Amino acid sequence: MDKPILELRNISFTYPGAEQPVLQEVSFSLRKGDFVAVIGSNGSGKSTLCKCFNGLIPHYYTGDFAGEVMLLGESAEGKSVSELSRHIGYVYQDFENQLVRPTVMDDVCFTPLNYGLPDYRERGMRALELTGLHGMGREFIWQLSGGQKHLLALAGALAMDPDILVIDEPVAQLDPQHARQIYEILRRLNEQHGKTIVVIEHHAEFIAEYCRTVVLMDAGRLRWQKPVREALSSVEELLSLGIYPPDVTRAAWMLQPDRQAAAGYPLSSEEGRHCFSRRVSPADIQATSPQPQTSDLQSASPEAKPVVEMEHIRLSYRTIHKTLHPVLNDISLELRSGERVALIGNNGAGKSSLMKLIAGITAPTGGTVKVKGITVNGLPPERLAGIASYVFQNPEDMFIDDSVRGEIAYYLKARGLKDRDERVDAMLEAFRLQELAGRDARLLSGGQQRRVSLAIGAAVRPAIMLLDEPTANLDISTKQEMTRVLQTLRGHVETVVIATHDMALVAEWASRIIVMSEGRILADGGKDEIFSDGQLLRRAGLAETQLMEMSRLLELPRICCSLEEFVARSEWRKEELVHGGSR
């Protein structure tokens, strides 16, 4: 058997000020050509583990460190981050912070140039070609979409031709089309170029399709390392840790809970199609199926007054070449009290720009925006702070204080609210932040940072709350909890708007869905209307959830939006599962 390309031996690490170690005696090895997913709930130590690979821990992130790291058969002790990074490329969760030069070519060449490599330009061009960015070398960074920026960060890591690539949350901020593009590139790098790939991932469907082995982290300890089918078939164990296997896997487990996990459950929609066999007719299913609940329907009364009124809105910015680049094109829209609105569409569709107009962060090029009857155009955002609350996609953009409690209190104190201590305590409890109250939010995990940013936004109890990708970087368990938290906002906030690629969240939470593409509204309606139009979803750069796809493959009379609905609306024969061959 080949020797490990990377080996961690009894690694323990404690961040400064933390009472408990974030890693506890972790031993782990990678072999050349592996494609490994590291899973675990937020705060389990996944990112911290991977930062030990290239020496960021303990050289950059200081703390109490013990254990040994072996890279290519040699001890990493005494080696700098610079030396180790020649062999280990890293794409961070906040990948935009890795882009440091004005143009694509400058940025991709930056690292090999700083290492003094004479072929830095050839390395950069090859990396752009591998990531599908060939021909974009002269483009400015700020002109790129979110997906292209992510690919550029990956190209920057590839320019050093590393043995190992680590990607933290590859698809967290991407629309489904760009998410799949990232994974297809990783697959080619693994299979055709021999790169060893490690992904930190919450999306089980991608793990099932692309990865070979899975590492489970739990409270700072490595619980196990298993082949992907065996790992994702450990449904009961994963669910106990708040980790969710693919929906089709859970559906099969719910119907056959006593089946030996080692035999494996279906992992994909195609495997699920062979696994499940309908026993009753679609008409019978429709007749016996529960009708949509009130919560599934648009909850705004027709008589409800508009919270937001947008008339013929246009938004453009002037490029460096003095030309106007359109962002929003003739948007007219009303948002009413009681609505739970989801803005969906691909990266660059205009979702965030639309919300920033409502919050007063951006002024329109043309048209009028009114919030609660107040004309927002050009109004300073602080004048709207108690009416419209915008929660940024990158949580760190909202952090000012040196503790979580201080972060929430800062915004309440700035508004002069007398009950701020009670509000802070309420937010800490609602968002499960009590134990983190004294920690610096900038040192928390990505999911924990997201919860802090939502607590900040909710604390001022605005009329309308605008959330940009509220479930980005969260594990599935925390996403589901976030859905419940969004429901509790109804008593404090008139209208909630989210911009998201998380179709499962949209399916479970939204009462109204607005589909955007290229700065225009393509569709505006309820779940049944939007989700039944597969062509519309593809045009908007979106993808069906696994349950939606299963509903189509099994020719169910209605698209299922939740696992409970899928099981309740169907009668299945419990047949032997078909696995679809070896991986």
UniProtKB/TrEMBL annotation:
It is found in: Cell membrane. Residues 286-301 have a biased composition (Polar residues). Coiled coil: none annotated. PANTHER family: ENERGY-COUPLING FACTOR TRANSPORTER ATP-BINDING PROTEIN ECFA1, HEAVY METAL TRANSPORTER. CDD domains: ABC_cobalt_CbiO_domain1 (cd03225). It is a peripheral membrane protein. Residues 284-305 are annotated as: Disordered. The keyword Nucleotide-binding applies. Keywords: ATP-binding, Cell membrane, Membrane, Nucleotide-binding, Translocase, Transport. Belongs to the ABC transporter superfamily. It comes from the Bacteria. Residues 6-244, 308-543 form the ABC transporter domain. Its main location: membrane. SMART domains: AAA. One of its GO terms (molecular function) is ATP binding. InterPro entries: AAA+_ATPase, ABC_transporter-like_ATP-bd, ABC_transporter-like_CS, ABC_transpr_CbiO/EcfA_su, ECF_ABC_transporter_ATP-bd, P-loop_NTPase. It comes from Paenibacillus tianjinensis. This is ABC transporter ATP-binding protein.
